[in-house]
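Collaborator request, handled under Task 6.
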Amino acid sequence: MSETPAEAPKQAKPEGEAKPKPKPKAKPPKPEDKPFEIFMAEEFLPEISSQLKRYDLVPERLELVDGERPVVGGTCPMVVGELPGGRRFWLCFGNNDITSSKTITLADPGSEPTLLESFLIDEKRMSLALLVSRLMQRLNGQKWLGGN
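Structure tokens returned to the collaborator:
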């Protein structure tokens, strides 16, 4: 009689061998990764409005426009804000990018803006939180958010 070849025993996986890792869930994009106009409309302007409400201020105007830069002229994208009592601010961007150069100008009621200031010039990374906090800090420094 001929012997049938013995079937090779099944080899067990070594104990140190790990199961394949599941693919990590895709992280939602950061707000700052959105296109400029969408970031401003969906993130920045609502957050500024929300922060102003904390000081019982409802902006009479708060919008992103392409317009004439105050003081020095030239067209640029800017956030125009008008607070109760006629206080106004313009946060101007060099182009449609939150990382572009930025300037800010302010005007008290009944006056026109006369000074254009650099805004966030030393920051390497730009974020929603940084833009919002520094704008609020600047408005507070002007004593527009209440008594200091």
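The cover message to the collaborator said: "The mean pLDDT is 86. The CA atoms of residues 39 and 120 lie 18 Å apart. Please let us know whether this matches your experimental observations."
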